[in-house]
Write a structure and sequence with these properties.
about 280 residues, alpha/beta, Alpha/beta knot, Trp Operon Repressor, Chain A, 2 domains, five-stranded parallel beta sheet, two-stranded antiparallel ribbon, 8 helices, binds ligand JD8
């Protein structure tokens, strides 16, 4: 997979040189190219922004530098290995982080991981002149993505998040000891549950031990305990995921535990929180 990032803060993407993504680059599994948007400016101040039409706060990123940058990057893909060679031009998907984008989810990470080439356009200021997105949407698949319901100062942090979530899904990037197959939120997972607690040596730390079941060597009981803990954690931190749980993946122990946690089994087998007690 090839990833291009166009930014006014190339140094913000330094973390792509370390850890999982850095190792994947060193192994040749990822080709990451970071570009300084100002390389496509031509004035003495390397201007990338201007005041918004219609007034309002802040500045908007000018379309010209983005257009020149994206054209040059797209053009650089012509003749690259894997461009089909049948004359079909290899085109990237354009990923634009924005608070007004579609939520970034594991399913979207899986979708992006299937693409051979992503170009990220993290903006700053109030965002990029809309005509840039409209221009490239005529040629490319454009993903406008938000990494969460909070406001950042720019899109670079989102690029780091999206890149890590996508890179770990690429074949061979995770070591044999790790797998994304049973991640929380992995599509088709037994249930979209949060991870339960994990423990390692020493068996006693300060005045704290290890849940006995994890020392029992009884794999069935351990699996049951882990699933129960995942349900407890999900019920507490993400009740919306319990309400979304597919009844078909719940066994009778799951149902008993959910009832114990205060969940009400609804017609059809889903679970909902009982409503507030109604005064007689
Ligand atoms: C890109 C500029 C800042 C946004 C005025 C604050 C993503 N989940 C997310 N939250 N925020 C962003 C994000 C914020 C950005 C840019 C992404 C470019 N800003 C702007 C509009 C209001 N300031 C994001 N992914």
């Amino acid at each position: 997979m090839r990833l291009d990032v166009v930014t006014i803060f190339p140094e913000y993407l330094e973390p792509l040189n370390v850890s999982l993504v850095g190792k994947a680059r060193a192994r040749g599994q990822l080709d990451v190219r970071v570009h300084d948007l100002r390389a496509w400016t031509h004035d003495r101040h390397n201007t990338v922004d201007d005041t918004p039409y219609g007034g309002g706060p802040g500045m908007v990123m000018k379309p010209e530098p983005w257009g020149e940058a994206l054209d040059e990057i797209i053009e650089s893909g012509v003749g690259e290995p894997g461009d089909g060679g049948d004359g079909a031009v290899k085109l990237p998907a354009l990923v634009v982080p924005t608070p007004s984008g579609r939520p970034f989810t594991q399913a979207l990470a899986v979708e992006l991981a299937e693409r051979p080439w992503l170009v990220f356009a993290p903006a700053r200021y109030e965002g990029i002149d809309r005509r840039v997105i409209d221009e490239y949407a005529e040629r490319l698949d454009v993903y406008e993505i938000s990494i969460g319901d909070y406001v950042l100062a720019g899109g670079e942090a989102a690029v780091l998040v999206i890149t890590e979530a996508v890179a770990r899904l690429l074949p061979g990037v995770l070591g044999n000891a790790e797998s994304h197959r049973d991640d929380s939120f992995a599509p088709g997972a037994m249930a979209d549950l949060l991870e339960g607690p994990v423990y390692t040596k020493p068996p006693q730390w300060r005045d704290r031990g290890i849940p006995e079941v994890l020392l029992s060597g009884h794999h069935g009981k351990i699996a049951r305990w882990r699933r129960d803990e995942a349900f407890r954690r999900t019920s507490h931190n993400r009740p919306d995921l319990i309400e979304r749980c597919d009844p078909a993946v719940l066994d009778k122990y799951d149902r008993e535990l959910l009832a114990e946690l205060g969940w009400e089994e609804l017609p059809g087998g889903r679970f909902g929180r009982p409503g507030p007690a109604v005064e007689e």
